[in-house]
Amino acid sequence: MNRQNLIEQFPLIEKMKKAEEVIWFNPNLTKTEDALKNLSVTSEMVQDASDRLDRFASYLQIAFPETAKSNGIIESPLVEIPAMATAMKELFQTDFNGEILLKCDSNLPISGSIKARGGIYEVLKTAETLAIREGLLKETDDYAILANKEMREFFARYSIAVGSTGNLGLSIGIMSAKIGFHVTVHMSSDAKQWKKDMLREKGVEVIEYDSDYSIAVEEGRKQAEKDPTCFFIDDENSTDLFMGYAVAASRLKKQLEQQGKKVDEDHPLFVYLPCGVGGGPGGVAFGLKLLFGDYVHCYFAEPTHSPCMLLGMMTGLHEDIAVDEIGLDNKTDADGLAVGRPSGFVGKTMEQLISGSYTISDEKMYTLLALLADTEQVFLEPSALAGTTGPIHLASSGVALNNATHIAWATGGGMVPEHVKEVYYAKGKLLLNH
Ligand SMILES: *Cc1c(COP(=O)(O)O)cnc(C)c1O
């Protein structure tokens, strides 16, 4: 592809360059059944991940007592937010049909963000593989034995490395340290201080870089290559992370059924997923497409300064293009989303399954943060608000939303310390009152 002509071929880039909010509808969206045929990932792989998490439930209840009330299953609530819906319609002077729900991954146990799905899953899978290989564990065992001292000593012979903007480091760091691995988290410059402090308190080695996320990932990769007992968790290419995220779909389906929310031909489901490198939102969306097919419409949401997945998917260049090539600085307070180059694996996998993608400014994320806190008493971190404007975007673009259920995926915020919450809220409140 001739990069000189990118703007001519994709005029939306004109607006993206200026960090304006945009919405893109995917022209390659395909009938789900046909799209799934071309993929290397399957529903069997998601089922396998789900079964593995079930096996670990007895261990997780011991290792993290806060998971006991859900019997060792790491899951989050799905809640109605009618007051927020009303307030948003007012704020944006835009009406939309359908009910909006919040999927509170901010409340996920252990690490308080969507990373508690993929990150923890991959650490557990690594541990299981090693223990089975050494004859210390069978799939039919009660995995509670993994909490024993001898098992911890066994895992201490191995290490885990990961590069992160923050939340993936938290989830992998906390889980790895708990099960006994030595763990190193390579943190990008935008990672928040409190995340580094929290990890160090839990015995995680944190290495800081002055550069962005891609460099942190690269350093993690290099560290692991030198050492055969070190496993690198690859946020850009990992199928395991993706599968850990995808398990969310069957859990969500049950919640929708329990709450009497229909999803069928006459009751479409719209899901809005904040997107960084793509694994989290991609995995969840993949799982949902497997279960709901053409009745579910998945949209990614990215910061105006870091629309890497939109750029990669729209141009078809995927990981061969980064946001700096269109003059964007990849600077955003939405730290989980501060990613300049998308995952090629996710982009290619989701190429025919994603309905579209939109961008949102940092100011709007802060404004919505305060609005949600005021209307629903729910606190999220800035990134996690990116999904909430989905219905507004679609309604403004004339998409039919009759009988729709909208789900804004609230991807994080549960671990944010009180003093940081106050700063976030004050910032949002100021913008809201303007
Ligand atoms: C990581 C993260 C995301 C996006 O997940 P990716 O796998 O990076 O696309 C969204 N929200 C929050 C709060 C995150 O930490």
Automatic annotation (TrEMBL):
Signal peptide extent: none
EC number(s) from the headed UniProt entry: 4.3.1.18
Residues modified to N6-(pyridoxal phosphate)lysine: K115
Matching Gene3D superfamilies: 3.40.50.1100
An annotated GO BP: isoleucine biosynthetic process
Residues in Tryptophan synthase beta chain-like PALP domain copies: 71-388
SUPFAM superfamilies according to UniProt: Tryptophan synthase beta subunit-like PLP-dependent enzymes
Catalytic activity, reaction form: D-serine = pyruvate + NH4(+)
A Pfam entry, by short name: PALP
Enzyme class: lyase
Cofactor(s) of this protein: pyridoxal 5'-phosphate
GO molecular function, one term: D-serine ammonia-lyase activity
NCBIfam families: D_Ser_am_lyase, PRK02991.1
Name of the molecule in the record: Probable D-serine dehydratase
